[in-house]
Write a structure and sequence with these properties.
The protein has 338 residues and is of the alpha+beta class. Helix content is 26%, strand content 11%. α1 runs parallel beside α2.
């Protein structure tokens, strides 16, 4: 594929028409066909660009949903995934292929409603550690191995996919490093539930932890007053006093506790003086302490920014006349405003 920036793929900003998802789809189908023809196992990470802003869809999907252009893009993604699954079936390898569908974050509400999705009843959106920013659905598909229609309430995160995939392939995870993900194959294949906490991080700070249906916020922050004054809002229409704060507020001595079963929107604090609060925090606190004591900090791989290492001359740039001369190397610490 040829491309470096959006300009290499035509997106009609008036109509929203672009065929980029179809290009991604064809690449995936061709890759699967090549691997099957050569009798080679494969790993396909199909991370399409849609539905990031600017939102777009192919011509045949424009105007086909009641959700506007964003809905059209979602329909095209759904259709594309269906074609990938159909290809696996037609090639006779569906019962030997594990497929897992999920997202890396909740909807980006800063571009909603026309250029972004909705997180429904969940609080805030992408770039926060509230449920709207961190909770996503997941679908596992493997005919002959995973019962159709089964619903699991297992807590998981995308780091579990590494460990789980190795397990399904009959391999052990590497022992020369700390592995954060756990093996979810007993959940996926046998319907079991694994009792485990989930830790919510923003940068280097552990912001919250979930255990079962309870979630404790040790820090809260939506976005800065500076961003908010510029019209950037990660929680539009969802101001919860003392929760959706515009400064990073510490609650480590008395974490804010919510029960996500009866309060998925994180609106109603469980009283600090209640028996429920005391009982739940007696379970959560030791897990947080153990987590922090055993945490092995990773060496940041994305914390040094240098424009010189960008892909200034990707394959095919000669045809486009867009081969660029890289600037002089000037590595520096990255600045991440959120």
């Amino acid at each position: 594929m040829i491309g470096r920036y959006y300009e290499d793929f035509k997106i009609n900003l008036k109509t929203g028409e672009a065929n980029l998802t179809q290009i991604y789809l064809q690449e995936a189908l061709d890759f699967i066909s090549r691997q099957q023809a050569s009798h080679q196992p494969f790993f396909l990470y199909w991370a399409i660009d849609a539905t990031h802003a600017p939102v777009y869809a192919s011509k045949q999907f424009l105007g086909t949903s009641q959700r506007g252009l964003y809905g059209d893009a979602v329909r095209e993604i759904d259709d594309s995934i269906g074609k990938i699954l159909k290809s696996l079936q037609n090639l006779g390898i569906s019962e030997n292929t594990f497929v897992f569908f999920t997202s890396d974050n909740g909807a980006a509400l800063i571009s909603a409603p026309k250029q972004g999705g909705s997180n429904g009843r969940f609080l805030c959106g992408k770039q926060t550690t509230f449920e709207g920013g961190m909770r996503e659905p997941a679908i596992a598909w493997w005919p002959g191995h995973i019962p159709a229609g089964h619903v699991s309430h297992q807590l998981g995160n995308v780091m579990d996919l590494f460990t789980t995939s190795l397990s399904l392939a009959g391999l052990q995870p590497p022992s020369d490093r700390q592995i954060d993900g756990i093996d979810l194959s007993p959940v996926i294949l046998q319907g079991k539930l694994i009792d485990r906490p989930i830790f919510y991080y923003r940068g280097n700070e552990m912001m919250a932890v979930r255990l079962g249906l309870y979630k404790a916020h040790y820090w809260t922050w939506s976005n800065s007053w500076e961003q908010f004054s510029q019209g950037i809002d990660f929680c539009p229409g969802q101001n919860i006093s003392g929760v959706t704060t515009h400064t990073q507020e510490e609650h480590t001595k008395l974490p804010l506790l919510f029960h996500l079963g009866r309060d998925p929107g994180e609106k109603y604090l469980i009283s600090f003086s209640s028996y429920e609060y005391q009982e739940v925090m007696e379970q959560i606190s030791p897990k947080v302490q153990l987590h922090k004591e055993t945490m092995v900090p990773g060496e940041p791989q994305l914390n040094v920014c240098d424009k010189a290492v960008m892909n200034w001359a990707p394959p095919g740039c000669e045809k486009l006349g867009k081969c660029l001369e890289p600037p002089k190397s000037n590595p520096k610490k990255c600045f991440w405003p959120h």
